[in-house]
Write a structure and sequence with these properties.
Blueprint (H helix, E strand, L loop, with lengths): L10 H12 L4 E4 L6 E3 L17 E3 L3 H6 L6 E8 L3 H11 L4 E6 L11 E2 L1 E5 L4 E3 L3 E2 H16 L1 H12 L6 H22 L2
Parallel strand pairs: 1-4, 4-5
Antiparallel strand pairs: 2-3, 5-7, 6-9, 7-8
Helix pairs in contact: 4-6, 5-6
Length: about 200
């Protein structure tokens, strides 16, 4: 209920669908692990055994990179899976693809990756803030990420409310980050309390 599913068959289909829907969204969370390459030629008939052939590959479109050129004030979140140099690679992807946030996880960590209902993530934002979290259920991570994105879209409102109570904080970026973190924590607390 309330979810519009768009089915696709290929990376190109997905790229076109994301571009079409992106204009109507405020937040894009791009979690799909799309193949980097596809066969250049698709055979129309079954390939028989004993037929030796090299498969030529063509690079698929980089959906996040294409979206980042037209994102304006929208919040765009990417994901990064690595087996080494996690933070360094995640920060590079964050910058190269003009993301607001990137969710990085190390496939070599026990409890992380595709095969589990849990994950261990580090969330990095475009202000350079790096937050690493202990092992969590993937559903919890999803709700936390939504909370972070929602509060980012309402950032100015949260800061304004804080300033009314505590005075002007202009230029005090550390305080702004603290407000955002506290707001995420409060939102998550409400979610968990509601679902007890």
């Amino acid at each position: 209920k309330g979810i519009n599913v768009v089915k696709v068959n290929s990376a190109i289909d997905m790229c076109n669908a994301v571009k079409e829907k992106f204009a109507d969204c405020d937040i894009l969370i791009k979690a799909a692990a799309v193949a980097d390459y596809r066969p250049s030629h698709i055979e129309q008939h079954k390939i028989k055994k004993g037929f030796s052939k090299n498969i030529e590959l063509t690079q698929n479109p980089d959906i996040l990179k294409e979206i980042s050129t037209v994102k304006d004030n929208k919040i765009v979140v990417g994901f990064c899976m690595e087996t080494k140099d996690l933070i360094q690679n995640a920060e590079k992807k964050l910058k190269d693809k003009n993301l607001d946030f990137i969710v990085a996880n190390d496939l070599s960590s026990e409890g992380a990756g595709f095969k589990n209902d849990t994950n261990i993530v580090t969330i990095i934002n475009n202000d350079g803030n790096v937050d690493s979290y202990d092992i969590m259920e993937k559903e919890e991570i999803a709700h936390m990420l939504y909370s972070i994105c929602y509060i980012q879209t309402e950032r100015d409102d949260f800061v304004t409310v804080y300033e009314r109570k505590h005075g002007d904080i202009q230029g005090k970026e550390t305080t702004v980050k603290k407000i955002m973190k506290e707001s995420v924590a409060q939102t998550m607390t409400k979610y968990f309390y509601k679902n007890l």
